[in-house]
From TrEMBL, chains A, D:
This is Hydrogenase expression/formation protein HypE. Belongs to the HypE family. NCBIfam families: hypE (TIGR02124). It comes from the Bacteria. InterPro entries: HypE, PurM-like_C_dom, PurM-like_C_sf, PurM-like_N, PurM-like_N_sf. One of its GO terms (biological process) is protein maturation.
Automatic annotation (TrEMBL), chains B, E:
Transmembrane segments: none annotated. The keyword Zinc does not apply. Belongs to the HypD family. NCBIfam families: hypD. The keyword Metal-binding applies. One of its GO terms (molecular function) is carbon monoxide binding. This is Hydrogenase maturation factor. The lineage of its organism: Bacteria, Pseudomonadati, Pseudomonadota, Alphaproteobacteria, Hyphomicrobiales. Pfam families: HypD (PF01924). Keywords: Iron, Metal-binding. InterPro entries: Hyd_form_HypD (IPR002780), HypD_1 (IPR042243), HypD_2_sf (IPR042244). GO terms for biological process: protein maturation.
Automatic annotation (TrEMBL), chains C, F:
Belongs to the HupF/HypC family. GO terms for biological process: protein maturation. GO terms for molecular function: carbon dioxide binding; iron ion binding. Involved in the maturation of [NiFe] hydrogenases. Involved in the biosynthesis of the Fe(CN)(2)CO cofactor. It comes from the Bacteria. This is Hydrogenase maturation factor HypC. The lineage of its organism: Bacteria, Pseudomonadati, Pseudomonadota, Alphaproteobacteria, Hyphomicrobiales.
């Protein structure tokens, strides 16, 4: 391509409406900022779509929109999150994530410097997860019509032969494994919200779990019934969903659930249940009892599963309750979160 | 968490449970009301029910200031928030509380009212400073615990000479409500279950002290034990109540002595009495009008009173007639006795006060205890 | 009601504010309602305000009593 | 699934923050509104990703974000557009579009009734285009942090063996074919913008072009060098892009470019160049000269290509100019649009 | 499009081109300035240059009110728009016009200034009515064509008693600018190319009529032909100018008689003279200060004058010294003679007035005519 | 400068407004600057205002003249 007039002023410049209007300014933003950060052969061809070869088999596809606020948080930013989240939804099917697409919706006035940092985080997250961002789109909306930046990523991957992980696959007697401590992402985010502002060492757990999943599949094979990443709504929402879809219930042991003291403290401060708080680098696996031990061992051998734990089992229950033996010695339900997670005073 | 974890110890709890079981007379029924939602929450959160003998029964009182706020006051707040000049600041708990006809602050916000969630009254002051062209109203709710922070905020607004700041005051008092449960004329319709003792408020008592319960224990002949919100605090208090009943005493005892004394927080009480005065009566969702149970701003502080500045008029909304909250709060019925429980009425779409916050009797049972209604085998 | 938790005062600030810490989580709160506060004190915090100081001796006493009462049960019939 | 408490009040209700928070309200919105509208076996399984079988070969993937305002416009709405646009980007590779993902970013207060209409349009557009919306995501943001509704769709499809359409493939001498009249979508949108408000019979051309493309590929095979849908930036941006990427220039004949009189009039009124105005149901094909006639015939035989025309040719040009012989008899450049398309007074 | 399509007829054009070629003396050079950007646009849009003989050369004048607005006035507008109380209403053309240091209204908007694009002055009035708490300022620009709509709007604001509405007036007049081109002292530095005749404004003349050019034709001895903006209008006017030159006449002739007469639009002229008066001088980008070339609001309308209400101070920004606009506007140089053309200066990032709107000489050449600089073969 | 196009008046409205039509595109404009306007008249519109009426006879005359001038050229050398 011939040089476009002046270079983007990354340090001081910001996105304006001309960067979304299909003219030279947009082409410059895309090639000068996004392609540079994601750099790969597919984007370089400059088409509105990208092509790749696949072998015959089973593929999975997923999408998620990222609207996190603040955009930068301890442990990551919206860019790395947008890669991890979508990679993880692919990985939860036991699949190997391959290609991602990225759709950017940018509010006018957004600083190039921030956009570049975010794009670079995406590029790095993609390289680490061994996936490629092969196609994308950029829209710019007027000030006040977005919240800085939204990213929607979609992803595709391939499932190893014979693997069919799905929410209806849990069976009574299956074990519930969790890959590590809960609530880190949600607490890291909340610590930076203006009205809550508290200080904590907790950083988001945002990470790509595909490699961990590969090791688990190796160890557990078809004994793994299903996996899910407990994001919005936390472990509570995830297990309630699975209970409904698999038509059973769960019994958990609170003592077994890994939780950082700082996360517990922040949740007490805000009146939130850590089981309702979002995670972005954790997974729940429902595993046949005979495979639980090897899968758990494989998890613990992986850096992202060091704190993995067996936290309970699937039980027959027409009411689909997720019950929990509290660490105090009683029993309770772990219900869906109701509505937005708001800090409580009561 | 120091001063919390120690009071959640499973081993101590197991022994304490045995002590209670040993001391509770199997021939007797012990019906204790925990007034506070904090206690209700502890019971359900830690599964305390599973650790008490069957003849020790907890009755969940009206002690959640969010739950007891009547729909009419929510409607008033929504009407205020819908004014384009107004920013309404609220504690997060209030967002889902139902007003009339399925409305709520959450829905009003979705429809365009400028409603901001705050964590502290100090945030509301900051919002007023940041928005000089707007009217910032703080939606004040809460028992004696939450009133002093509102008082401090009004002092601060005075000091900063904020002219765009007012308070929609909904602060209420616990002793009149406890009294109401035992003697209100409604009891004739609802019936009454004998209450054998009260677990008294924890954090309310840090402010008002234990003294105000003395009249109460004497007048009604009921034992009262002030207890902390940790589960061992609760169990100890229950044991103390069992002992009072067994010994036919009706005294005020203080289990929560690490934070509560007889006189309370004098400085806080003084701030409150400087700024607030009693209303003749105030409506409680589930209880109806309760005399001398609510606070309003005193005359010299009327410039900070949103009801004065915006000429707000009382709105009254009848409670849903099918809602059994009145009977539940008085221990006559249980959540499952209500036809609406878990069908029309859930935490997502609460109908009555007991479902509104996670500390209401119905919400606590729905969220944490419901499995017991269908219990096939015990979680262990 | 009245969500409130114990926190340690780690720093006193001007204007009757202070920093408190709970297991590594620290937060700025108002201590306008408390007299004679010192770093190291534990307070009960509620909606960003300290409501009262915790009396460490009373806490220890309660805990001892709890252990005794529990031991009574452990000694009693199982 | 067990019944969720009360039904969504589609007629009077609106989205609030609880519908994006991972609890029951969100599950209800998704199953009660989106799944109903898109209804297919993949969504019914309720996973965070969907799996499907593919044969070995070449696949394409694309994404686009849709931020159109107003959301409803003559000839469509954001929902149908989000399907057509992504289907078309797949089709432009000569591929058969198969599966779509949909990411919704919704502003609190958005009316259920509108959301339902939009979802139903998406479902219908997908059925017409013979694609399936197999996975999705819903986020709700606070009022003032979005513009009602944004949709990002991604899509995958399979390319027939031996076809490799790409922007660098144009050769000197190739013909430039366009599938119909230009500017209809942009003018239909602008006619409804508050400050421009004019009345016109023009409706958006928004349509899925995959069937048209299939017929063209049948007729033209590998003589089709590349195709592109002239969306944002219009024909001008599209041809300038291709000129740069294929390192050549174009010569167009203005007389040959199909244009509705109403579109021409609206553009004169606003001071816009119709070649800069967006289309959503048109394609440009660069075709080897010997294949141009059969491809054009195939286009004209298709309802979406009735007005197809041969509008010019690729020429050698180091400057990558897109030149045009005006209908008046002179010559001019057709340049990129510069910045946002704003109505002019001068 | 009636009254437009007929005047774009290719067949007539071909004959007309031949007539011009036949009548233009091959020994002579005909240098005609079209004052108006509308004419410049028609030339480039329709490729008129390809239809004229080589010795008939068009010089693109300063006739685009967007282009000639100096950077300082843009800076003033941005400073105003950055006030949180102000909503600035502008015609879309203005958004990309450069102020100082690479700024523009588009960028100011991106950084948070509340700037609204309007199609008509009537929209600005509506915005003022819809935002009673804000100050709505209309950024008025334009020649005699665009001034009457501003006048009507001020009348309307008066009638509606709008108190939050003002005008930032930048209206300018064409005859003083034409005069400046021929006699300004700058010419000594820039040098001058002889201009043999003027294509006179089309729509400006619908308002002011042809009379004002009579003095001009006489004083400077230059033929003037008022022409419509359609390409055949232009070609006819060029033929008429060729004939005047050949016959050594210097008259005002009216090619655009279907819309223009000698007196113009009396009602419009009256509205304008009621409300506006001449400034002593006004800066034009590319021309510098031009005496009696700008308008301001008369004293009785000062309450609608943003410069008065907001106590705005004139900001002066020097033009980029490398920019050759001054010479280009006077016909001495061509866009390609400027070192910045197409490198630093493009329509996306214009440096000088001639690149600002698509009607500027440099922008028109970049956008539509550039291929001729590298022409290998003729488009046909 | 001064983008303006011819449009037909199709309806007169109160408050000196009117509807004009251009090849099926219709728009509300102000006619406050025009006297004696009738439906069927053509006007030149600019920034939402009619600037002047078009004189149909003059238009026809110009067009005839254009044809003549063109014919002169066609007759002349090619
Ligand atoms: S379930 Fe709902 S309606 Fe029934 S008593 Fe409880 S709060 Fe009232
Ligand atoms: S190219 Fe730009 S800098 Fe050069 S004369 Fe033209 S406007 Fe001025
Ligand atoms: Mg997903
Ligand atoms: Mg996900
Ligand atoms: Mg795109
Ligand atoms: Mg997931
Ligand atoms: Mg409001
Ligand atoms: Mg795309
Ligand atoms: Mg596209
Ligand atoms: Mg999702
Ligand atoms: Mg495309
Ligand atoms: Mg402003």
């Amino acid at each position: 391509m011939k040089a476009y007039q002046r270079k983007l002023d990354i340090r001081n410049g910001c996105v304006d409406l001309s960067h979304g209007s299909g003219g030279r300014a947009m082409a410059q933003l895309i090639s000068g900022l996004f392609h540079e950060a994601f750099g790969n052969e597919w984007l370089a061809r400059g088409n509105d779509q990208s092509a790749f070869d696949v072998g015959a088999g089973r593929m999975v596809m997923t999408t998620d929109g990222y609207v996190v606020s603040p955009l930068f948080f301890p442990g990551g930013n919206i860019g790395s999150l947008a890669v991890h989240g979508t990679v993880n939804d692919i990985a939860m099917a036991g699949a190997r994530p391959l290609y991602l697409s990225a759709s950017f919706i940018i509010e006018e006035g957004f600083r190039f410097a921030d956009l570049k940092m975010i794009a670079e985080s995406m590029g790095e997250a993609a390289r680490t997860a061994d996936v490629h961002i092969v196609t994308g789109d950029t829209k710019v909306v007027e000030r006040g019509k977005a919240d800085g930046l939204f990213i929607s990523t979609a992803g595709v991957g391939v499932v190893p032969h014979g693997l069919d992980l799905s929410a209806e696959n849990a069976r009574v007697g299956d074990r519930v494994l969790i890959s590590g401590t809960l609530g880190d992402h949600g607490v890291a985010i909340m610590s930076k919200r203006q009205n809550l502002a508290f200080e904590t060492e907790i950083v988001s757990d945002s990470a790509a779990l595909n490699d961990l999943v590969a090791k688990m599949v190796e160890a557990g094979g078809r004994g793994i019934r299903l996996m899910r990443d407990p994001t919005r709504g936390g472990l509570a929402a995830t297990l309630n969903e699975i209970a409904q879809q698999s038509d059973l219930g769960f019994h958990l042991r609170e003592e077994a659930i890994p939780l950082k003291p700082g996360v517990a403290a922040a949740c007490e401060l805000l009146g939130l249940d850590p089981l309702h708080v979002a995670n972005e680098g954790k997974l729940v696996a429902i595993v046949a009892p005979e495979n639980a031990a090897p899968v758990l061992a494989a998890m613990r051998a992986h850096p992202l599963g060091r704190d993995a734990a067996d936290i309970g089992e699937a039980v027959a229950d027409d009411h689909h309750f997720v019950q929990m033996a509290t660490s105090f010695g009683g029993g309770r339900i772990v219900d869906w979160p109701s509505g937005e997670q708001l800090p409580r005073i009561c | 968490m120091k001063y919390a974890d120690e009071f959640r110890d499973k081993e101590i709890a197991l022994g304490l449970a045995k002590t209670i079981r040993a001391e509770a007379d199997p021939q007797k029924l012990y019906r204790f009301m925990e007034f506070c939602g904090g206690h209700t929450h502890a019971i359900s959160r830690y599964g305390l029910e599973d650790m008490l003998p069957k003849n020790v029964r907890m009755i969940h009182g009206p002690g959640c200031p969010v739950c007891v706020l009547p729909a009419g006051r929510i409607d008033m707040a929504i009407r205020l928030a819908e004014r384009p000049d107004v920013i309404l600041c609220v504690y997060g708990d209030l967002m889902r509380v139902p007003g009339s006809q399925g409305t709520s602050l959450l829905k009003a916000k979705a429809r365009g009212a400028d409603i901001r969630m705050v964590y502290s009254t100090i945030d509301a002051i900051r919002i007023a400073e940041d928005n000089p062209g707007r009217e910032v109203v703080f939606f004040a709710i809460g028992f004696e615990t939450t009133t002093p922070p509102t008082a401090v905020m009004i002092r601060l607004a005075e000091k900063k000479q904020l002219e765009n700041f007012t308070v929609f005051c909904n602060h209420v008092l616990t002793p009149p409500a406890m009294q109401n449960i035992l003697e209100s004329p409604d009891i004739r319709n609802i019936g009454r279950v004998e209450i054998d003792g009260f677990v008294g408020p924890a954090h309310v008592s840090t402010i008002i002290g234990t003294a105000p319960y003395e009249f109460f224990a004497e007048e009604f002949g009921k034992p009262v034990v002030i207890a902390g919100f940790e589960p061992l605090d609760m169990m100890q208090a229950i044991l103390m109540l069992v002992r009072q009943v067994n010994e036919d005493r009706h005294e005020v005892e203080n289990q929560y002595s690490r934070a509560v004394n007889r006189d309370g927080n004098l400085r806080a009480k003084e701030e409150v009495s400087d700024i607030f005065e009693l209303r003749d009566q105030f409506e409680w969702r589930g209880l109806g009008q309760v005399p001398y149970s609510g606070l309003k701003l005193k005359r010299p502080y009327a410039i900070y009173d949103a009801e004065v500045r915006f000429d707000m008029h009382e709105l009254r909304v009848d409670d849903n007639p099918a809602c059994e909250c009145g009977a539940i709060l008085r221990g006559v019925k249980k959540p499952v006795d209500c036809k609406l429980f878990g069908t029309v009425c859930t935490p997502e779409t609460p109908i009555g006060s007991c479902m509104v916050s996670s500390e209401g009797a119905c919400a606590a049972h729905w969220t944490h205890g419901r499995f017991r209604d269908h219990q096939q085998r015990r979680v262990s | 009601m009245c969500l409130a938790i114990p926190a340690e005062v780690t720093k006193l600030l001007p204007d009757e504010m202070a920093i408190v810490s709970i297991d590594g989580v620290s937060k700025e709160i108002s201590v306008a309602l408390i007299e004679n506060l010192a770093v190291g004190d534990y307070v009960i915090i509620h909606v960003g305000y300290a409501l009262t100081k915790i009396d460490p001796e009373e806490a220890m006493r309660t805990l001892e009593l709890l252990r005794e009462l529990s031991a009574e049960g452990q000694g009693a019939a199982s």
